Structures are given as structure tokens and as C-alpha cells.
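Researcher: I'm preparing a figure for a lab meeting and need a structural model of a single chain. I don't have an experimental structure, so a prediction will have to do for now. The sequence is pasted below. Please return the structure as C-alpha cells so I can convert it later.
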Amino acid sequence: MKRMFSILLILTIFFLMAFSSYALAKPLTDQQEVKNVIDQYFTLKYDSFKDNVPRDISPLIEDKDNSFLAYEKERLIYLTDFYSKIGVHYTDYILKLSYDSINVSGLNATVLLKEGHDVYFSSAPNSKASLSGLEHKIILSKSSGSWLITSDDYTDDLEIATKRDVNNLKKLKNEANDKINHLKKESKDITSRIMVTTTNGSQITPAAIANYDILAATSYAYYWSGENRYNTTNYYIVSGNDCTNFVSQCISAGFNGRQHDTGSYSTGWWAGTGGGSANWEQVPKLYNYVSSNVGYGLRGYGITWSSAYPGDIIQLSLDGSSWGHSLFVYDHMSLYGDPMYDIKICAHSSHRQNYPIYNYFANGWNYARGLKFTGFSY
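Model: Understood. Here is the structure written out cell by cell.
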């Protein structure tokens, strides 16, 4: 009887182990395999910035005309080279991929996701810089039993600057030294930090002038540049182009929510849940409105980007004449005594929080200007 019991016990253990092994060896679903490939793809790209040595992403990609792979490889080569030239790398990062959908149909898959991260740069290793909400549409196909990426559609600063053209990336790389030297000269030349525009026109005496609460403005900027945050209770969203709308919200918060709401769409500075005025949401119009206003509403003057401090804004241009991006200055540290390394910004499109300004120069922007606020007349 005891012997029979022992045999039954051994058989039971054997079958349990066999079942457990089968369960552990259960093949991954297509969705899991697709996700694993995408995770590897992003991890290789991010690891490239830990030592500024581009990783090989080609084993994960199937590209019949080589345009997608060529662009992504050249992009890594250019960015890691730029960071090497300015002496910066990732000391650590946390990758955040938010999958909205993974749709598999036969041998094809379409994935919608949002890219985000927390990055620690060597220029400020204890300071977390965050990105969120960068949308990707990734297409994959299954070949010889393996899922491979055939395209990755996304829009960021460098993609806009280069128009996804490999030759434009190579041009940026060849011009990087001159660009960096020019930026360092701008950022270190104290004598160049002067007002670059002045007010003009007839002075109108306002009833009162509200002072700018920089702490309120920077607190608003930091919170609402956090992970996929939009203040839809009080404002609207400019889909894919929310940068100046966000900056105007920050400035308004620094003036206790004041807006120049007595002006028209073209002359005022206002917004709500239904939309905003041109001066509120358009990059060049905000700058022109503030730097030339001598009447009621928001007042200020233009400055060089390197003299921008918390509460100011910086605007960016590819060619020095068309201005296409607005950033809110969150911090200007004194670690290096060099604004290119010390200035940190908060922004939308995509959300960036406490991010170093040099990241924008690395990603294709060539020119910058600043705007400082002196008060709000009412």
C-alpha cells in the first residue's frame, strides 16, 4: 500500500512538472512578439546615448527600399555625434512606452503608441528631464516566423528640421562644429546679452500694472508639462502644435490669470476652452505683441536666448526668419556658467519637462531669441 502511494505521488509530481514546463514553454502571442520587437527597437536607440555609440537596429527592421532604415541609422549617428561634441550623454534613463493599440492582421501589424522617458543627462546627472506624449505609428510584418518593423511614423523636432531626408541629416552633421562654436560664443559672450527689440509707438497710461509672479508661472509650467497633462478645464488644445498656447498659459498664471480680453482676435491676448487669439497661440505674433505693446495688456521686450531666466520664454527658428517653436524657461542653473548647459525648459508638442536647451539645438533648431516680461497693464 505504501509502495503504491509512493508510486502515485511520484507520478503526480511528474505530471505536475510536465504541465508546468508546458505552461512555461507556451509560445508568445503575436501581440506579445510585436511588443517585444518594438521594446528592443527603442531600447537599442536609447542605449546609444549612454556612451554615444550608435547601436545596430537593422536586425529588427525590414525595409525594402532602405529609406526608413537609412534615416533612423543616420539619425542615431548624427545625434550621438552632436552630443559627443558638446560632451553630453545619458547617465541613466527610464523608457516609457504607452501602447494605445496593437492590431494584428495575418502577417501584418499596426501599432499606435506614445513614447515617453525620464532621462538623466551627464550635464546635470541628478536632474530628471522628462518627455511624454510623442505619438508613433509603427508598421510590422512577419517574415520567416519573425516580426520586423517596416516603418515608424512620428513627428518630432529633428524630423521637422530634416524632412526625413538622410542628406539633410548629413548636412547637419557636417555643420555641427560651426553651429556649436557659434552657440557657445553666444552663450558665453556677456556683452551680447542685450535687449534686441524695443517698444515703440504712442505710450498709453494704464490704470495699474500687475507684477509678474515668476514662481506662479514656473510652478504652472512644471505641473502642466508633466506626463500628457493639458489644462482642458480652462483652456483648449492646439493638436500637435500646442507650444505657444502652453507658454501663454504659463505667462497668464504669472499674472494671476490675467488676459488682454478686451482686444480683438488680432489685437488681444486671450484664450478659453473654445480657442484663443492670434497673439496667444502663434509664435511670431506673441513675440511681436509683447515687444511692441505700449498700452493695455502684456508688456515686455526681446532679449538674447542666453540671457533668459525663469519666467522668460525662448523661441526657436530653423532659418533665423521664420520662428516656429516657443519654450518656457523653467530654470537657469549656475553649474557651468554656460547658458547652453544651464537653461532648462518646459514645453508642449511634445511635452518636455525640465529639459536642457541644448537638446533643441541638437534636434535641428539653429536660431533662438528670448522674451522677458515687465508687467501687465490694466
